[in-house]
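Problem: given the chain below (130 residues), write out its structure.
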Amino acid sequence: MMKRLNHLPAQFLAMAIVLVVTVPIALWRDGWTGVAGDAAGVALVTVSYVVSSLVIAWTDLKARHLLLPVAMATYVIKFTFIGLAMWAALNTEWAGLPWMGVAVIVAVIAWMTAHAVWVWRAKIPYVEIQ
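Solution.
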């Protein structure tokens, strides 16, 4: 299963870079509340994509014919929970919410960019040799 998760270190590095860049800005602009919102947004994106990666890798290993429906169900369930969590956070009037929103957007762009670069550079065989 680990060979199906080779892309994760590149994305973890991208998330670390996002935090290194955004945390000082959030601290300067809104103090520790901004930092908490920023870290929460990056953590939300990271956990979300890692869970998807694990589910997809496991399904690919155990039941490849179910890969599309399982991946789509994971996506729908994951974003339903994220949407409910964001809605609940919106109703708390937490001061870190704007930074959380910005961090989610920046982290998603960084994650997807890191993933695309990894795919472009990876030597992925077209035929699996068993």
